[in-house]
Specification:
The protein is of the alpha+beta class and 166 residues long. It has one domain. The chain has 6 helices and 5 strands; from the N terminus they run βββαββααααα. Helix 2 packs across helix 5 (113-130) and helix 5 packs antiparallel against helix 6. The longest helix has 19 residues, at 143-161. It is globular, with a radius of gyration of 15 Å. The chain starts with 6 loop residues before the first strand and ends in a 5-residue tail after the last helix. The mean pLDDT is 91.
C-alpha cells in the first residue's frame, strides 16, 4: 500500500464495554483496515484533544457523528504522525500525562517529533508484516510489537526532548 495514496480516519466508538479509539487506513486498491486501536480510561479525552488540536491547525475534517461513533478524516501528511502518537500513548499508565504534548509534537516544538512519530508507525507496520497478529485481534498491527515500540518511543521522547520536569 503506497503511503501517498492512503486515507486515514480517526474514530471513537462508544460501546457497552467503554470507548475505543481507532486509527483506520484505506487505499484506492484495498479495503479499510484498523491499524491501531486503544481503549480504557482517558481515551475519550485523548480523542477530543487530538481532534481539537488538529481542527485548530486545519488538519482534520468531520466525516460523521452519531451517538455511538465519531469519525474524522485526517490529511494524508498528518495521519502517520497521529498513528505514531497513538502508538506512543498505547501502554501509558496515565494518558493524561502525554495528552498535552500532542500539540507540541504536531507543531514541532520538539525538533524532529513528527518524523519520529511517523517512523514509529512505519516501524510497527514493517515488523507486523514479519510477525502478523492473530485473526481475533482485529487490527493490522501486532499488539506485542506495538507495546515494544511504545515503550521505546517513550524512552526516546524523554531522552531527546525532556518534555517532563525532573
Amino acid at each position: 500500500m503506497s503511503v501517498e495514496a492512503r486515507q486515514y480516519r480517526l474514530i471513537l466508538r462508544s460501546t457497552i464495554r467503554g470507548a475505543s479509539l481507532q486509527l483506520r487506513v484505506s487505499s484506492p486498491e484495498a479495503r479499510e483496515v484498523t491499524l491501531v486501536k486503544i481503549g480504557g480510561r482517558g481515551v475519550e479525552e485523548l480523542f477530543n484533544n487530538i481532534v481539537d488540536v488538529l481542527m485548530k491547525h486545519g488538519l482534520i475534517e468531520a466525516e460523521s457523528k452519531t451517538k455511538l461513533v465519531k469519525a474524522y478524516k485526517l490529511k494524508a501528511e498528518i495521519g502517520p504522525v497521529v498513528g505514531g502518537f497513538i502508538v506512543l500513548v498505547r501502554r501509558a499508565r496515565d494518558i493524561k500525562v502525554w495528552t498535552p504534548l500532542f500539540e507540541a509534537f504536531i507543531t514541532e516544538q520538539y525538533k524532529g517529533s513528527k518524523v519520529v512519530l511517523s517512523h514509529a508507525l512505519s516501524l510497527s507496520e514493517q515488523l507486523s508484516k514479519i510477525s502478523p497478529p492473530s485473526k481475533r485481534v482485529r487490527m493490522q498491527l501486532n499488539p506485542k510489537i506495538l507495546d515494544g515500540i511504545s515503550a521505546g518511543i517513550k524512552v526516546l521522547t524523554k531522552k531527546l526532548w525532556k518534555p517532563f520536569p525532573s
